[in-house]
Structures are given as structure tokens and as C-alpha cells.
Design goal:
2 domains; mainly alpha; 177 residues
């Protein structure tokens, strides 16, 4: 869970601090820059670039940027990209909210989110299994005291957790289809 929040935080941070150096403003290919911003799943950064480039006396080419951004949005806002974004738990701006872009992307995003949640469940169960295995290892090494009944119960619990993991993996696989 912490890693998902970290990824989202870094994405927001990176999205919010788009900057260009004065020399970059003078040589910028505004179409490519717009396309790249869209392919990152970012909101339009033209306003930020305008502030940066004003220092260099350069005005961004809004038409070229928008042409690139709109082209990038069409390439980014696909079903497959939605699955990818959702599965990784990434944050995406509202780039794909426009009619004609939203439908496929959002279907993919919903599927990706389901896959992400299922993977989190699998990871929690794998952590649970690891804790049981560690206890069993500590008992075997004499670091912990436990009765034979308790050890038997831990082995059974581990077996049940392993079955749950396999069931969750099958569920995840059925979502992937």
C-alpha cells in the first residue's frame, strides 16, 4: 500500500513541476513536447512552459503544442494503456476524460484496477505465508518454543494460505482474459 501511495505521490510531483530552461525554450519542438506530455498521462503543461519561457523572452507555440498534445492523448488513451495504468496503480490526469477517448481507456482502467487489487491480495497472503514460514523456521532452529500441536496447526494454516494464494492467482488470471 505504501508503494502505491509513493508512486502516486511521485507521479503528482513530477507532473506538477514541469520546467524548461531558457535555452530549451529557444529550441523547443512544441509539437513533440505536447505529444510527450500527453504520453506521460499528464495534464497540459503549456502554462508552466509559458512562465518558464517568459524569462527567456520566448512564447510557446500554442498551436503546435496542442497539435502534439491531442495526438499524444489519442495514442495514450487506449484500452491497453488503461489496463497498464490501473494495474500499476498509477495516477493519471484527466487527459482521457474527453468523449471518444474516455470509453476504452476507462474500461481498461477498471480492469487494471481489479488486477491491481487482486495482486495486493496475493501479496498480503504471501506475506502471511512468509510469517508462518519464519515462525516454523525459528521453532526448528530453537529460537521459539512451541508444542507439536502448535507446529501442526501452523503447517495446516500455511497449507490453507497456499490454497488461498493459488485461488487468488486463478481469479487474477480470469480477470486478465
Amino acid at each position: 500500500m505504501k508503494s502505491a501511495w509513493l508512486v502516486m505521490g511521485v507521479s503528482v510531483l513530477l507532473t506538477s513541476c514541469a520546467t524548461l530552461e531558457p535555452e530549451e525554450c529557444k529550441t523547443a519542438d512544441w509539437t513533440k513536447l505536447g505529444y510527450a506530455d500527453a504520453m506521460d498521462g499528464s495534464s497540459m503543461r503549456l502554462g508552466d512552459y509559458g512562465k518558464d519561457c517568459a524569462k527567456a523572452g520566448v512564447t510557446p507555440d500554442q498551436n503546435a503544442y496542442m497539435t502534439g498534445y491531442n495526438s499524444g492523448a489519442k495514442a495514450f488513451c487506449t484500452y491497453d494503456r488503461g489496463v497498464e495504468v490501473g494495474e500499476k496503480g498509477k495516477y493519471v490526469s484527466d487527459i482521457c476524460s474527453k468523449p471518444g477517448l474516455a470509453e476504452d481507456f476507462n474500461r481498461g482502467l477498471a480492469k487494471g484496477k481489479k488486477l491491481n487489487e487482486k495482486q495486493k491480495e496475493i501479496s498480503r497472503k504471501e506475506d502471511e505465508r512468509s510469517k508462518i514460514e519464519q515462525k516454523l523456521s525459528d521453532i526448528k532452529a530453537g529460537k521459539l518454543q512451541s508444542s507439536a500441536q502448535e507446529v501442526d496447526l501452523m503447517h495446516r494454516e500455511k497449507g490453507l494460505v497456499e490454497k488461498e494464494i493459488e485461488a487468488l492467482k486463478r481469479e487474477k488470471e480470469s480477470i486478465s482474459l
